[in-house]
Design a protein that fits this description.
Low-confidence stretches of chain B: 1-5, 11-15
Radius of gyration of chain B: 20 Å
Strand content of chain B: under 5%
Structural class of chain B: mainly alpha
Shape of chain A: globular
Largest sheet of chain B: 2 strands, antiparallel
Strand order of the largest sheet of chain B: 1-2
Shape of chain B: globular
Largest sheet of chain A: 2 strands, antiparallel
Distance between the termini of chain B: 14 Å
CATH class of chain A: Mainly Alpha
CATH topology of chain A: ABC transporter involved in vitamin B12 uptake, BtuC
CATH architecture of chain A: Orthogonal Bundle
Order of helices and strands of chain A: HHHHHHHEEHHHHHHH
Oligomer: heterodimer
Strand content of chain A: under 5%
């Protein structure tokens, strides 16, 4: 393999995820002719949205050297709150109050995680694992069984693409993705980004040079929980109903999405745009498998094999590089 | 540094220097008797044996996790849950209820577990993949394989001898799995404290570069560790079958994170290089006492989860703390 190519890939891990994204889009398009038509495009992006939002929040925590295993439970909690607090005939006031409640709960959840990691100095994996029980329990307490129905106006606002002119419509999820990218560009141009990278890379050195390491870590868990609340909102609006176990299976894929996007799990390096791409890749893999005419008992295996190969390729590339040198 | 502050620092360091396994075991006993007060009839010898028996299953499954976490480099094995399921399903299928096929089945289980662990190890050492990622991916592959091969139909039977030997009372009131657990504990102690592998494992966990410079073959030790972890997890599935008597596709997954929690509650540091299997055994006991107590108190699921999470946080606060960045 060309060494300069491997070197470029090694230095810019997100380039690799972009490459992978193109491959997945081509594969998906080959299996699904109407992939780029507004209907499927809108539907796909809307379904991917919760995973994208989780990956974005998770990126902040991982760059700062932690990990947040409670995000799925926060999604469940949000879903339970929204489904019980917004009746089908809810007025705008009631919706606003429910949103405030959901984001308040999300913020408290993030602060609990942050408190555990920064003030109590507990290890992030086990702290957020422990708090995930608390959030899951709260979700089940609020809404023991899946249920509730959100007002149609509210869900269709999120489900239908935004109509700029009758001929030109934009999927709402695409607008959110654009805002997320803008948000990261904005963050990248502040000192906060440098503090974030320093905190994850060399916390001792960062502390010695005046970075408020604990404060930075605190913000990352808060961000992560708030993005998880947003993910819960996107999910609940998408399905129109509440599920207290909605997020059970969403936590670990969010970590995979971040890693696929080129963020280093050991911290100190990474980027949100890559994570968005990573989450879309995971969604597309799911799409490809459901469109490919596969034996349904074979699907989980193919899914896992594609993901593990995608995760291993950067390692294989760098192994080849080392062997060539 | 003045002598006064120096001694102050030393006093502060001495304070949390209580052995975590000891704290955990005392805590398990304390919780057990608190349970007796909260739920009359909880603290009797039958219940004690039952709790230790259940803790043994978790403890055996957490043995490999202990090794992987000691090996450092963010070491963790998220494929343990899937491998437990695989170990149980393989035993169920191969023996098909025949006692004489137990040992051949055990052989296959250990080999397959070690083989999958080996793949994890190669991913971590040669491909330098983060352990969390490669083992999570491997968990997906193993689960996918189980789905594909079994097509959801879990055919087989549990040999009667497995239940008798492992789960039911074997010596006096003590079931075989408890004896097996103690033997495993001794074996793990020998492995960690009395073999070259054990010394090298701790060296790798503390500082890989230093270990490499002093002649430890780091990649070999890491690969071997993940392979052992895979083998022990699959063995955990084999043992678990003696208790559950039946298999299902999600059998091992509920043990995954508790196995990590047991390791951490037992004082093994997630950063690596420090820990013991005694600690993990004590950690498994604590978690099982809490679990059984919550069950005995007939608390509904929502509150069970909230209480479990809170207790875990409190336990971690007691001795799972990391060094402050200011120190």
């Amino acid at each position: 393999m060309n060494t300069s190519l491997t070197r470029t890939l090694g230095r810019n891990p997100w380039l690799f995820s972009l490459l992978l994204l193109v491959v997945m889009i081509v594969l998906n398009r080959a299996l699904q002719d109407n992939l780029f038509e507004i209907g499927p495009l809108n539907g796909n992006l809307r379904v991917f949205m919760p995973a994208i939002l989780l990956a974005v929040g998770q990126t902040f925590v991982i760059i700062a050297g932690g990990v947040d295993l409670s995000v799925g439970a926060i999604v469940s909690m949000t879903s339970a709150i929204l489904a019980t607090q917004i009746p089908q005939d809810a007025s705008a006031d009631i919706v606003m109050r429910a949103l405030l409640l959901a984001f308040g709960a999300g913020a408290l959840a993030g602060m609990l995680n942050a408190f555990g990691v920064t003030v109590l100095r507990l290890q992030p994996i086990v702290t957020t694992y422990a708090t995930s029980f608390i959030f899951s329990g709260i979700a089940l307490q609020i809404l023991p069984e899946p249920g509730g129905r959100l007002p149609r106006d509210l869900t269709s606002f999120w489900r239908n693409p935004l109509e700029v002119t009758p001929e030109f419509v934009i999927p709402m999820a695409l607008i959110v993705i654009t805002l997320l990218v803008l948000f990261w560009v904005l963050v990248s141009n502040t000192r906060y980004k440098q503090f974030l990278f320093a905190t994850g890379g060399k916390p001792d050195a960062a502390y010695a040079t005046g970075v408020r390491v604990n404060r930075v870590k605190f913000t990352t868990y808060l961000f992560s929980a708030l993005f998880a609340t947003l993910a819960g909102l996107a999910l609940t609006l998408g399905t129109g109903t509440g599920n207290p176990r909605a997020g059970d299976m969403m936590t670990l894929p969010s970590v995979v999405a971040v890693v696929l996007g080129g963020t280093r799990l050991s911290g100190g390096q990474g980027n949100v745009v890559g994570s968005i791409i990573g989450a879309i890749i995971l969604g597309l893999i799911g799409n490809i498998i459901s469109f490919a005419d596969l034996d349904s008992w074979l699907r989980p295996l193919v899914d896992a094999l594609i993901i593990i190969v995608a995760l291993a390729i950067p390692g294989i590339v760098s192994l080849i590089r080392r062997l060539l040198q | 540094m003045t002598p006064a502050t120096d001694s102050l620092v030393r006093a502060r360091r001495r304070l949390p220097n209580v052995s975590p396994p000891l704290v955990a075991i005392l805590l398990a006993i304390l919780l057990f008797f608190i349970g007796g007060v909260l739920a009359p009839g909880f603290a009797n010898s039958d219940q004690a044996v039952n709790i230790i028996r259940l803790a043994a299953f978790l403890g055996i499954i957490a043995a490999g996790q202990t090794l992987v976490i000691i090996s450092g480099g963010e070491g963790i094995d998220l494929s343990a849950g899937a491998l437990v399921t695989l170990g149980a399903i393989l035993t169920y299928r191969i023996t098909n209820g025949q006692n004489e096929l137990i040992l051949p089945a055990l052989g296959v289980v250990l080999l397959v577990g070690a083989g999958i662990g080996l793949l994890n190890g190669i991913g971590v050492s040669l491909l330098r993949m983060p352990p969390l990622v490669i083992t999570l991916g491997m968990a997906g592959v193993v689960t996918g394989l189980i789905y594909f091969v079994t097509r959801g139909e879990l055919i087989g039977r549990t040999p009667p001898a497995m239940g008798q030997l492992l789960s039911q009372a074997l010596i006096g009131p003590i079931p075989g799995v408890i004896i097996l657990w103690i033997v495993l504990g001794l074996g793990m102690w020998l492995l960690l404290e009395r073999t070259t592998y054990g010394k090298h494992l701790f060296a790798v966990g503390i500082n890989r570069t230093a270990a490499r410079l002093s002649g430890v073959r780091v990649n070999l030790v890491v690969t071997l560790t993940y392979s052992l972890s895979g083998m022990l997890a699959a063995f955990g599935g084999f043992v678990l079958l003696g208790f559950t008597q039946t298999v299902f596709l999600n059998l091992g997954q509920p043990f995954l994170f508790p196995s990590i929690a047991a390791v951490v509650v037992g004082g093994t540091v997630l950063a690596g290089g420090k820990g013991s299997y005694w600690g993990t055994m004590a950690g498994a006991l604590v978690l099982q006492v809490i679990d059984s107590l919550l069950l005995a108190l007939r608390i509904e699921e929502a509150f069970q989860l909230i209480i479990l999470g809170t207790i875990l946080l409190i336990l971690l606060t007691m001795y799972g703390r990391q060094r402050s960045v200011r120190q």
